[in-house]
C-alpha cells in the first residue's frame, strides 16, 4: 500500500486507489482528481530519447483533463503536461503510451481532509 494511505483509500487486490487522498492529476498536477485510469501492464513500456520508459500502472485524472481524454483533445493534454515542465517529445510519447494502455476510467471517492 502506498505510504500515508489507509485500507479505505487503496484497493490492494486491484492495486488502485479508491479515494483521491494523496493523489494528483497525472496531466496537470491538480489536487483531488476525480478519476482513476488503470493501465494494461503489457502496454506501459515505451521508448523516447533512445531510452526505455515505463508508465505507472494507473493514472489519476481531474475533471478537466478527463474531459480532454474523453473528447480526444490530445493537444490540450500535451499542453497541460508541458506547462508543468515535461519535455514536448516525452509528453507525446507518454500520452501515446497512456492511450494504448488505458483500460477506462473509474470514479474516485472524494476524501475530505
Describe the structure using short key phrases.
113 residues, alpha+beta, three-stranded antiparallel beta sheet, two-stranded antiparallel sheet, globular
Kindly summarize this structure in a few lines.
This protein has 113 residues and is α+β, with helices and mostly antiparallel strands. The protein is 29% helix and 19% strand.
Question: Could you please describe the fold and organization of this structure?
Answer:
The chain is an alpha+beta fold and 113 residues long. The chain has a domain at 32-107. It is built from three helices and seven strands, in the order ββββββαααβ. The protein has helices at residues 63-71, 74-83, 88-101; strands at residues 10-11, 16-17, 35-38, 45-48, 51-54, 58-61, 106-107. α2 (74-83) crosses α3 (88-101). The protein is globular. It starts with 9 loop residues before the first strand and ends in a 6-residue tail after the last strand.
Structural class: alpha+beta
| Count of beta strands | 7
**Low-confidence spans: pLDDT under 50, at least 5 residues?**
none
Distance N to C terminus: 19 Å
Strand content: 15-25%
Structural topology:
Layout: E1 10-11, E2 16-17, E3 35-38, E4 45-48, E5 51-54, E6 58-61, H1 63-71, H2 74-83, H3 88-101, E7 106-107
Antiparallel strand pairs: 1-2, 3-6, 3-7, 4-5
Helix pairs in contact: 2-3
